[in-house]
Every structure is written in structure tokens, then in C-alpha cells.
Amino acid sequence: MDASELEQYRAAIHGDREAFEMIIRTHSRALFAIAYGVLQNREEAEDVVQDSLVKAWKTRWRVRDAEKFLAWLATITRHRAHDIFRKRRAVSLSNETIEATESHPADTTAIDQQLHSALAALPEVHRTALILRYFEEMDYRTIENTLGLTNGALRGILGRALASMRKQLRPALASPD
Amino acid sequence: MATIHNEIENWLAADLHGELSESEQSALHAHLVDCAACRKAHHETKTMNKILEETLAHEKPDPAFERRMLAGFRNRIPQRTGVSKVLANLMRLRATQITAVAAVLLGLVQIGRMLTSENAAPLPSHENYVREGFVAQPPQAGATRADQSTSLAKSDELTRGRSQDLTLNEPPPPAAPASRSELDKEAAARPMGLAAAKVAAATPQNLSRAEQAEAKPGETPAPAQANRKLIRNATVQLEIVSFDDAVQKITALANEERGYVATTSSEKQANGKLRGTVIVKVLPENLDRFLQKVRGLGELKNQTLGTEDVTKAYLDTDARLKNARVMEQRLVDMLKTKTGKVSDLLQVEKELGRVREDIEKMQGELKYWDSQVQFATVTVSLAEKEMEEPAAFLIKERSQLALYAPDVEKIYNDIKALASQKVQVTNAQLNRDYSGRVSATMSMLIAPEESGAVITRVKSLGRVENFQTQTERIAQGGSGMSENAKTKRDKVELNITISREEQEQAFQQTSLRIRTSSVDEKAKDLRAVAEKQGGRVRSSTFSRDPNGRELANVWLRVPMKNYPTLMQSLDSLGKVENVTVQRQDRTGTQIDEANAPADISIQVYSQGNIVSHESGLLATLRRTLAQSAGAIMWSLRMIGVAIAFLAPWVIAIVGVIWITQRVVRAKR
């Protein structure tokens, strides 16, 4: 995290709207990735990011340490996404059949479906890390910062995530070869 | 490379994601060449990576995502514009924040003060400042301005708002004249202000008059109305060194002030000092000056100054006098014409006499008042210094004597026989109460030269219990000290109380026990010893108890001087035990200690049987038996109590059980 970035966070915390908007420009994709990691639904994830940004702006004074601003933003997003996830589950329990047919449109390929179910089976951190990596092609350092992980932890996480995906999708992987 | 093999997944992922350093990459590739399993995993992971890249790329947000987010954010949090933005930016400054907090606190304090009805006003103080600004400018304010200052102050309320604004915007000095010109207009428009100005203009005159009055305190203010009849009089009390001198001076002063000395009276005190009064008549207008001068003669102790207004009474009397004169004239006329009966004429003459008497009386009254009014009366009381110095001292001696004697009546008569020209018995009383106790009280007045001899004589008649002499020095003709006053001895007063010896309280009380084998005999010896030492046996008892113990109590009274000898001789009678001595020191009284009585209470006793009934084997056995019997009785009693305590319950429980059994049996 360089000095100008830190200054930007600080200004945002003190209510500098332009600084905050700049943060939105640079980091909302990462937030989207986090939300998507939880929800695996683009529309919902977008809403979550939107809500989280508004909430972050309103409660920005709670952040004491500018260095943790990004991690705080990520936490807000994750919590918001979890809220939505819980609500959705409550609804889906009653409308499971409809949900099942609707959530997977017909045009998706078989491997797509398998991939998504494999993704859904991953632990949340693994999933989010994967998504951050493949959506934004972020380097490991940035992902670690965003998710509040210690240095070097991501290598293991991504390694395990990829391995478990690979094992689940082995039959499908074998076929195109 | 075992490590790479174990963590192949991580390595593969990092490799695909381009997160491996070059050395790590070459290490990984070297391992992949060696290890087939890892090669397979590598292959699979690569495929996996490709699929993920392909698939998730679809899910990735579109390029417009950020814009959407921004637009949504701006939509939901509208940007502040204009004033609110400036305010918000301002509030972001630390200094502004601190100021705001301070302002809020100040506001709270002000509200609090208003609630507690304290004077919450920084504003009034400002007003004061403005007002001061007006008044405190003598150079600019001319003479007329100064006069109008009061009116300014009055109208200032009206123009307060304006003047305030002015003073706020400009420094005070230039502002004041501007506002004053306005105020002048106001003042001119208001009659009230003008009136106030007049009053203010009038005050200097008042002031100068007051100053004049202060400057001459001795001067009498000129009588307001000349035709008023005022009687003025004064009294002055002075302490002077010499009476005659003072009288002379007062006479001179009276002449100076065109008055005269009416009366002088003086009185010589026993100590040769003079005291007196001088009555001086002076003209009323000179009274104050005269008093001032008189005061200088000595030390002023007291002064009163009074004025009596007799105008009304004077005028009344004057009018009545005129009427009476008219009456007189008419009566005289009646007599002159000499008409009517003789009896009537007589009546007229009688009436005329009464009227003339009245006229004379009234004339006298008026004359008296005139004289009183014409001259003020000053009564000067003079007293020479050290008036209170005593002329002589009288030494009064008072003695009190308490005597104890075997025969009260004899001494009573002896003392009475002492009476002579120089020894007067003023009071003699012999009392005998129902129990046969005799006492006497006597009072005597003895010429001073005889007193010593008589008192010694009386003392020798009995045993002196108490003798007190009180000498009093009485100053005559004053109080305090005097160096050359004479001292004279007065008659000595002697009060005597005579009582019988028996009634006297012992000076010392001793109690002791003597153990001996033959009590009766020793008691007799004891009596003999006591009599030999001049003692008297006051009472004695003898008793014997069933154990053969004998006990004799003897109460003796001996003079103190024989007490030690008696005590020594007691040792010969037996073993002396338990000696306690109690002495009653009577403070403040003179006691003839040698002859004072000492009481001794002696208990002579024998031990009786060596082995008493209460000790020894048999007695112990008997006591043991008795105690054990007692213990048994006690335990019996306790058992009885316990039974009484428990029995009702036991009976009740047994009864219930029995009934239950019967019921159960009946059911079967």
C-alpha cells in the first residue's frame, strides 16, 4: 500500500467525496468479486456492492486506521452478501424447484454447471480468492490485502482451491482431452 | 525435491498465475521432469486453469460496472451543493470542529445560567460600556453637556439599540458624539429630560449651601421665622481640675457672649473635692458658640441640647390675655357707671378681682416665656477630677468561731458574762432539740482594742473547731485607691457557735480487729487502757456464736494527741489485724489537731473451735453426700421436665398409630 493510496483512504474517511469515488472506481470490482464469491449471482452481487458502498460512506467515521480501510470495505461487503445469501436460502427452501430450474439457464453447458457446483462446494475464502484471481487477474499481494490475509497464505489457498476443483471436475476434464 | 512434490498443488497454481520466481520455476520444472504424478497434476491443473479463465471471464462484470456503481452511489448519496458543501468542508477542519464544540459548550452554559435565573448577560455589560463612553468624556463634553448628562442617561434607554450599533461598528470615542447629537435632539423633544437638566443645574447651589453649613458647625442657622417662640436649653457635664477656676472662666465666657451666670451652687465631698452646677443664660443665637467654648474648659462627659417650641401656647395665652383685658375694661366701666344694686356691684368687683388675677397670671406666664425665649439656659454640671477618690477607709473585721464543749449551757453563760461597755452581745440563742441535743449561737460586737483579748478568752472556753476571720476594707466617700486617706478600725463582729462534743465529727476514724482467746477479758482491758489515755467508750457490744466464737465491738473516742499511745498499748491485748485509718481533712478551717477527736472502732474476736463444724472429714463427707443428693434431685427434676415436655407428643403419636392400625385391621 503506497503513501498516495493511504492518503486517499484517509481523505475518504474524513469525508472527501472525490477520494471515495476514486476508491469506488478502483476497488468496486474486487468488492464485486467478494460478493460474487458468496452469492455466485451477478445481479445480487452488484446490489450488494452498491449497498455496501453506501453503507461504507455513511459509516466511514468508524474506521480509525486508514490502512485497514480496504479490508473494512471488504468485510462490509461480505457481511452484506451473507445477509442476502441467508435471505435467499430462506426463500429457496419454499421455492426450491422453481429456483433450481431458473438459476441455471438452459444455454449453460454441462461443464459450466459442473464448474459452478464445484465452485459452490469450495470453502468461501477459496472461492473468493479464485474469483478475485480469475475476474481481476489480481496479483497475490493485492488479493491478500483485500481479503486481509497474511503474506504468502494465498499460495496455499489457491493451490488447494485449484486442486479440489480439479479433482471434482476430473471426469469432465478428461473428456475434452 | 520432496517439498515441491508435497506441495505440488500450490506450486502449480502459483506457476500458472505467474507468481513463481525464476529459480522456483526452474526448480519446479526440474521436478516435473522427474515425477510423473506431478506431471499429470500439472497437466490437469493447466486444463482447469483454462476452463476457469474461460468460464469465469463470462461472469466477470462488464466494463460499465464502475460507472454503474458510481452512478448508483451518487444517486443514493446526493452531493451537497453550495452552502451545505462549504459547511461540510469547513466542518472537516480540526479548528472548525474545536470552535464548534466550544460554541456549543458556551451555549449550554448560557442556557444553564438562564435556567438557574442567574444574570446571563454579556450584553448588559456592553451597555454599561456604552454608557460609560458617554459620561467619561469630559474634554469633548462642554459645560452644557455636563448638565445634560442626566437627561442623556435617561433617554439612553430609548436609543440604546442605535448607539450600540454605532459603537459596535466604530471605535467608541468618535461614535459617542454622533450618538450624542441624536440624543440631544431626543432630550430637547422630551420635557422630562429638560426638567432633569434643570434639577442637575440646581444641585450646585444646594451643594454650596451644604458646604457653608459644614464650614461653620458652631453657628446657629438663622431662625426660620422670627416670630416663633423657641426655648433653647442645654446641659453640659464637665470634669474639671478646679471648680473655682472653672466658674470664673464660665462667668467670663458668659459675659463675652452677652449672657450672665444665673446661679452657682457647689458641694464639697468628703474627700475635699468640689462638685456643683452653674446655670448660665446666654442669647439663643450665641448658644452654640458658648457651648463650644465651655466644652474647652474640661473633659466633656455629657451634653444635651434641647429646643422647645412654645409658640402655640404663647399665642393662646396672649389671646386670652387680650380677652381678659377687654373683660377687665368692661367691668371697670360697669363700676364707673355705678348703676344697679349694691349686691350686683359687689358681684362685679369680685369678678374684676378674678379677672385681674388671671391677667396677672397670664402676664407672668408670658413674661416667663419671654425671658426663657430671650435667653437660652445652659446648665453646666462641674465635677473636679478624681471625684471618686475615697476620703477614708474603714476596716471591718468579722470572725466566726465554732466551739465544742462538754457543757454547752455553761459556756453560753460564761460568754454572756463577758458583756461590758466594750463588748456587746447582740444576739444570743440557746437551742435544744427534741433529741436532747443542745447548741447555741451568739453574736457579739467588740470594740477593736478589746477584740484580741475577748476572742482569746472565748477560745479558751472550749475546743475550737473552726475559726475564721474576715477583714474588709471599706472605702468611704468614693471607690478605688487613695494615698492619703485615713484608715479606721470598726467594731469587730464575732459570731460563735457552740455545740456539744458528741456531735463533733471525728477527725480520724480507725477500725481494727484484735484476735485473742478470751474476748470478754480483753474487752475490759481495752476499756481500762482507753480511759487511761483520756478516751471515752462511746458504745460496746458483745456476742457469742454457736461455734464458740466470741465477738466484742468497742467504739472509742480519744483526743488525737493520745491516739499513738493508745494504738501502741493495743498491741499488748492481742494480735492486731486489718487496721484501716480514714482521715477527714477539712480544708479551709483551722483545727486544733491535738485535741481533735479520733474515733477507733475495735473488734475483739476469738477463733472458736480450731476445727469448725464446716471442715474436717465428717463435715466433708456430709457435704459430699448432701451435694450428691442435691445433684440427684436436680437430675430427677430435669427428667420430670423432659417427660412433661415429650409426653403429650408421644401420647399423641402413639394414639394416631393405634387408630391407624385399628382402621387397617377393620378394612381387612
The biggest beta sheet of chain A is recorded as: none
Low-confidence stretches of chain A: 96-107
Give the helix level of chain A as a range of percent.
over 70%
pLDDT averaged residue by residue of chain B:
76
| N/C terminus separation of chain B | 97 Å
Task: Please identify the structural class of chain A as seen in this structure.
Answer: mainly alpha
Question: How is this fold's topology laid out?
Answer:
The complex is a heterodimer of chains A (177) and B (668).
Chain A: H1 3-13, H2 17-39, H3 42-58, H4 69-94, H5 96-103, H6 110-121, H7 124-136, H8 140-147, H9 153-168, H10 170-174
Helix pairs in contact in A: 1-2, 2-3, 2-4, 2-7, 3-4, 4-5, 7-9
Chain B: H1 2-6, H2 8-16, H3 22-34, H4 36-59, H5 65-76, H6 82-91, H7 94-115, H8 122-135, H9 143-155, H10 160-169, H11 172-189, H12 191-215, E1 230-240, H13 243-256, E2 260-268, E3 274-282, H14 287-295, E4 299-309, H15 311-337, H16 342-374, E5 376-384, E6 392-405, H17 408-417, E7 423-432, E8 438-446, H18 448-461, E9 463-476, E10 486-500, E11 508-515, H19 519-532, E12 536-544, E13 550-559, H20 563-570, E14 575-583, E15 597-605, H21 617-667
Parallel strand pairs in B: 1-5, 6-10, 11-15
Antiparallel strand pairs in B: 1-4, 2-3, 3-5, 6-9, 7-8, 8-10, 11-14, 12-13, 13-15
Helix pairs in contact in B: 2-4, 3-4, 9-11, 9-12, 10-11, 11-12, 15-16
